[in-house]
User: Fold RNA polymerase sigma factor from Rhabdonatronobacter sediminivivens.
Amino acid sequence: MTERHSFHSLLPPEMRGLRHFAQRLTGDSHRAEDLVQVTMMKAWAKRDSFRPDTNLRAWLFTILRNSFYSDLRKYRHEVEDVDGLRAAALSEEPCQDHVLALRELIVAIGDLPEQQSKPLVMMGAYGFSQHEAAMECGCTVGTIKSRVSRGRLALCSALGREMNGHAQAAFGASVAGGRR
Assistant:
């Protein structure tokens, strides 16, 4: 009991020096205080390994320095984000909706008659011009325009959507109004 009591009495005089050293290492008074507390807890837990004929201050400073380096290694990839703005900027909306919509579109295109689906896919997915699609299908450009228009309307009907002006413009630019 006397050894514990004497070890306990040796610690408080070293606190000021430990705080100063921790402050210089961390640059933050709160982290420095936490580091000193961790050092005291580790020193108390390992008090049986301390030899009275050695330098207590050097032993405590070594514990503090090693604890600091351990924390650095442990948290080196951590970024402080108090307000959550960094996490919000890095977060991404789930993409399942896009995958489901694409699957739905593929099924709907597969359900179209080949006369409508073939020109839609050739022009929309492969970038064929109306003229190239007409050559491939063995028909006129006017027929391709008609088939694409009917296919587009059938897709909208199958998907339960109406063609608004924006969708018509986007779809028309990629399919109906492609290269001539």
Remarks:
- The chain is about 70% helix and 0% strand.
- Residues 56-75 form the longest helix (20 residues).
